[in-house]
Amino acid sequence: MAEKQHRYAVTVTWTGNTGTGTRSYRGYERAHTLSAPGKPPIPGSSDPAFRGDPASWNPEELLVASLSACHKLWYLGLCAQAGIAVTAYEDAAEGTMTEEAGGAGQFTAVTLRPRVTLAAGSDPARALALHQEAHAFCFIARSVNFPVTAEPTIFLQESGTA
User: Fold this and answer.
1) Which tens digits make up the pLDDT trace of 60-119?
2) Distances in Å between the alpha carbon of 45 and those of 27, 42, 50, 99?
3) Is 22 exposed, middle or buried (0-12, 13-18, 19+ CB in 10 A)?
4) Contact 32/46 with Cβ under 8 angstroms?
């Protein structure tokens, strides 16, 4: 199969000019809006540790969320192809970023902790193994330079429950 290229266009608009621009480090807000055609805007800021708004999404959270969502989407698709009925999925993902003395930094790890519920009669061992396949396919995990690990927990519904 020939390679395909996909493009993703987003606009980040800084909305934090309080009147004097960036004349001083404390004189502006880190607020911005993420947008893409046909989608609702996402309010963004920096992490509160860097003078950001704790009520807005920061880039670090969005990176962890992207890894989690990508894994979930691949996992659900692989389960559907394998005849495994997932009835619930929730991931308590967590990323670790190390900030250096000079202010630069990088992510050093992300751990995904999906809690997956399967319909009665599904194969829990196969469902568990599909997490490794999902990880191998996840576009985002394949693109980062730090380890992304999954620590899944599988639950099996009892017969007669929805």
Assistant:
1) 999 999 999 999 999 999 999 999 999 999 999 999 999 999 989 999 999 999 999 999
2) 15, 10, 9, 18
3) exposed
4) no
Please give the single-letter amino acid code of residue 124.
P
Question: At 141, is the pLDDT very low, low, confident or very high (cuts 50, 70, 90)?
Answer: very high
Q: Which two tokens stand for residue 142?
A: 């394949």
Q: 113 in helix, strand or coil? A: coil
| Structural contact between residues 131 and 77, judged by C-beta atoms closer than 8 angstroms | no
Chain CA centroid to CA 106, Å: 16
Q: Are 118 and 124 in contact (CB under 8 A)?
A: yes
Instruction: Give the whole-angstrom CA distance, residue 127 versus residue 77.
Output: 12
Query: What's the half-sphere exposure (Cβ side, CA atoms, 13 Å) at 37?
Result: 2
| Predicted confidence (pLDDT) at residue 161 exceeds the cutoff of 70 | no
Structural tokens at position 118: 């399967």
Mention every residue, 6+ apart, whose C-beta is less than 8 A from residue 15: 29, 31, 32, 33
Tokens of 69: 């969502």
Q: How far apart are CA 117 and CA 159, in angstroms?
A: 13
Number of Cβ atoms within 10 Å of the Cβ of 127: 23
Least confident of 40-54, 70-84, 101-115, 147-161: 147-161
